Structure formats: structure tokens, C-alpha cells
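Input C-alpha cells:
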């Protein structure tokens, strides 16, 4: 699926009212809702109130393990392969979801109840926490989110700053690691682009 198709125009930086005051929370909630889809490519656009998420999924790793086990057991029992076990590679599944304020609030209430049942520290490398981190960058700049894009482990965000200028930031696994290990020294030869947007 191509993710470069034109989308509906988002709210401009000159709009006087922005309903969504906390992009970190909104993106975390959306990330929790999408985590079970194992997004390989993810695009989120917003007008400040409504969020549109679409993308392509990784194959479910648990299904891959299950199918591999069944195939192995079948071969041991009967030898060879059969059409019932051998399957052609699947094309990536696509998803398309929309979230308004009411849906985000509803999902947040559900997630809050689950967090109360299982008190544990959030996984900083989970999809929801990565999206929350990018939303927190926008919030810290008192900015207005325009677009978020994820491909593999690289995430990019575009937002309007307080002056109405379009800005961008990126997040990678390396940056996430550094944020969790602030006392580690930066490698002298680390590519400079890995650190762009690392400003909380």
C-alpha cells in the first residue's frame, strides 16, 4: 500500500482554537490501540481534534511461530509438504482507523483501568511509548501536531511551533536508548542525524 496518497488538508497553524491539548496522551492511546496490529508503516494525521491512522502491518510473529510448528509437526508425521500446510507468502495487511476526542477518552479510560490492575513500568520501547515521546516533544514546544510517520524503528513528526513555523523531529531506537541511559557518553563517531529532534 502506498502511504503517499494525498490526504484531507489538516488544520493550519493560524487556526485560533486547538482542541487537543495533550498530544503525548493522544498518541499514547492510539499507539496502545494499534499495537496488536504490529504496524511496520504508520501514518497519523490530525486536524487537532480528529486523528486518522493508516498503515501496513508486520506479520503477526505469534502466527508465524504457530504455523512453523504445525508445518514441522506435519512433516515429521507424514513427510513432505501439503497444500494445507504450505502457504504462499502473505501480502502485508493494511489498516485504516479514525479517532475523535470521545474515542480517545474512552480508550484512555479502558487503559487506565488495566494499568490499575497491573502496576508495572511502561515499556519505553513499545509503540505506545514511542508515540507518546514524540507527542511530548510537540507538547514541550507548545506546538500543534500535523503528521507522524513510522517506518520500521524510525519515527518522524511534523508540527507547527508557536510562531507558526513547520518543524520536524525524529526518534530512533538509539535515541530511545540514550534517553533511558543519560549517563552513557555519546559515541564519538555516531551519525549526527540520529540526534536530530532529541529535545524533550
Amino acid at each position: 500500500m502506498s502511504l503517499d496518497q494525498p490526504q484531507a488538508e489538516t488544520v493550519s497553524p493560524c487556526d485560533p482554537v486547538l482542541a487537543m491539548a495533550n498530544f503525548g496522551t493522544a498518541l499514547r492511546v492510539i499507539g496502545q490501540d494499534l499495537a496488536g496490529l504490529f504496524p511496520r508503516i504508520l501514518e497519523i494525521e490530525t486536524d487537532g481534534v480528529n486523528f486518522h491512522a493508516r498503515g501496513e502491518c508486520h506479520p503477526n510473529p505469534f502466527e508465524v511461530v504457530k504455523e512453523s510448528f504445525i508445518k514441522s509437526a506435519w512433516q515429521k508425521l507424514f513427510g513432505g509438504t501439503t497444500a494445507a500446510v504450505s502457504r504462499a507468502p502473505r501480502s502485508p495487511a493494511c489498516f485504516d482507523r479514525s479517532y475523535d476526542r470521545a474515542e480517545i477518552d474512552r480508550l484512555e479510560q479502558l487503559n487506565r483501568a488495566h494499568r490499575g490492575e497491573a502496576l508495572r513500568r511502561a515499556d519505553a520501547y513499545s509503540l505506545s511509548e514511542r508515540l507518546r515521546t514524540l507527542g511530548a516533544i510537540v507538547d514541550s514546544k507548545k506546538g500543534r501536531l500535523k503528521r507522524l510517520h513510522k517506518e520500521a524503528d524510525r519515527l518522524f513528526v511534523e508540527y507547527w511551533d508557536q510562531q507558526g513555523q513547520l518543524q520536524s523531529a525524529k526518534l530512533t531506537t538509539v535515541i530511545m536508548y540514550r534517553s533511558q541511559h543519560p549517563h552513557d557518553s555519546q559515541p564519538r563517531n555516531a551519525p549526527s542525524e540520529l540526534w536530530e529532534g532529541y529535545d524533550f
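The first helix runs from residue 23 to 34. The chain is about 35% helix and 20% strand.
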